[in-house]
Task: structure prediction
Amino acid sequence: MTGNPAPTDDRALVDAVLSRQPGAFERLVREYQGLCWHIIQRMVRHPDDTRELCQEAFLRVHQCLHQYRHESALKSWIGQVAYSVAKRHLERKRIPIVEAAVDEDALSPLEAVSDGFDLEAACADEEIAAGLHAEIEALPPLQRTLLTLYHLEEVPIGEIAQMTGLAEGTIKSHLFRTRARLRQRLEARLGEIA
Result:
């Protein structure tokens, strides 16, 4: 899948790393370690595993950077590596990354429209935020990761598709269903609090 061409800064950084300029790879790691950590942590949720898998992801980035073709943002490419490393880890441990149930590619016209649930507004109240955090942590790895990328990292759906290899419609469907699930569970929690 080809996205927007990589920015000039990405090209310069990649060229610097590939030409083994001192400190270039360290700059790359500093620039993208937060993204890598968020993706892997949301998938595996074990700090020790996350640290190890982040190192593995950056090792893979270092080994394969010569294959990066500047067809998409470097952020998307590194995100794809991190996602792949985390997904492979979960598969090895036989941990399902998504709840089995619905046709993943089916997105009804109703789901294509925003559900009106505002995650940011829900986070404004501390008690609601704590409940929301607990519910997000209870989500399967894929839904947690997609929600984090889209709402916290503010990664566009097209870039998330490049990172995960999922169709944009599938991502939208996951986000819609996940927000609906969170809204339902938060409403139940608020009913218990009231």
Notes: The radius of gyration is 18 Å.
